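Exercise (ungraded).
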Amino acid sequence: MFKILVVEDDRDLCRTVASFLNGNGYEAVGCLGANEAYDAMYKDTFDLIISDIMMPEVDGYEFAKTVRALDENIPILFMTARDDFASKQRGYRIGIDDYMVKPIDLDELFLRIGALLRRAKIASSHKIEIGALVLDMDERTASRGGEEIPLTAREFNILYKLLSYPGKTFTRMQLMDEFWDAETNTAPRAVDVYMTKLRGKFEGAEEFEIKTVHGLGYKAVIK
Amino acid sequence: MTTMTKKKRHPAWSYFIAFFVLMSFVITSSMLLFLNYFAEASGVVFTRENLFAAALATFGNAIFLALICTGVDVLRRRIMVDRPVRAVVEAARRLMRGDFSARISPAASKGASDGFDEIINCFNTMASELSGVETLRSDFIANVSHELKTPLSVIQNYGRMLAAPSVTEEERLEYAGAITEQSRRLADLITNILKLNRLENQRIYPDAKKYDLGEQLASCLLGFEDVWEGKGIEIAADIDDGVLVESDSELLSLVWNNLFSNAFKFTEPGGRVSVSLKAEGEDAVVKVADTGIGIPAEVGEHIFEKFYQGDTSHRTQGNGLGLALVKRVADIVGGEISVESEVGRGSTFTVKIRMAADEKALGDT
């Protein structure tokens, strides 16, 4: 069972979030401040941290920075009333993984925690496994039941990205920015060519399907 | 406040003295000039006796002419200056007392010296703007308290009903759902009020950077993927590549998110939301169209005002601040926003933003 640490100075909010998570298949521990959280982390290991920003004594930024210095993989989610871009930017620069503005929707929090944990697993194992399909980041290979599916490096990278975030649509430009050199003057439509190739190679695949979203972008949907 | 020091007016006799001195000077100079030439040419020598009567008559003449001039001048002042000034001062005093209906009748400038009609026009424009702001302000406060109190009282009531011992399981779920729904509404409203307040009260220096508008539209639109899939709304995106604008992307994302959220809100399942981006001349033109309920013309005029909601039956879904935010951002970044709509057919919002100088830099192969 995944263990989640909730750091929030408002007693009621801390309690409701922790008990909601406890009632939905996680084991959550609530702390009212960063120092209390350090103690809890000393005694126990956690899989994910949810933290407020504005807290007395040590604030969320300071807390996240300390945690990140000790563990570079643990997902950190900020849950805060600050909705300005500067605060978000500061958080992401420290190395947090997700950001939710209060008042938070508990159902959405649940979905995001699921996605964060799945990505953390992918990040630590460098592997995506869907049914019999395995994508290995270290080897840059895709195989089904031990049988390799030949992919070029760029095809592999795009597919790995899409399958790391199933159901999330990426725009052509987002994919271009990540997988093409900044200098290349390729039109964003070049992404279309790669999608066609990937679809051809995974035609009739039982695990997933690449969907075009209304001329906006592409997403992988797990069947 | 109203103790405005009245400027001391010159009495009529002071004008008379001024005109008299002027007349005497002009007549004396002309007479001397004339008599000199006349004496030289004719050799006539004037004596004190034969000049005295003439001098007396001329003196009388100067007094008479000065009187006429004073009369004419006083009359002229009264018509051309005093009357319009009094009208302006009167209206300004009413405005100062808080009577925003004060206007100057254009008739006050009839026959007045140049510039008065312009002053009166400006004054009237100012007064109507002020009264608009004032009505908005008082409406705003009334609306805010209404919008805040309604969900609060609903929450309070359901909380109390939940405490009753006889609540069935079904009722319990219904009440809890209503409480969640209302608090969500309250939260959205407060978020929007705070955003609008930040936009209105802070001096905003837009953080302008050059970026790809199409990309921003696409990613904002994708934020609503769950909504259109859940509601079964068809999406038509026609976004040109490589349209760059130089603007504040965070502010503009408020515009797109609000327009998209409205479009999805007012479109029934099975309807269609289309988003297009085209470069037209020097402008980037974004159109967000829906096949929703549409906006009647008389509502369209007010739609960018705070808390104005066209359809009261949809009040529960929004808070009437979204479009005010959109308009405010458009003003800040120097964009234009307009709406075309037909009741029952849907609405199209059009936003025009100046494109960045070298819009061809991106997207071309």
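Further reading is listed at the end of the chapter. For now, observe: Residues 12-113 of chain B form one domain. DSSP finds nine helices and seven strands in chain B.
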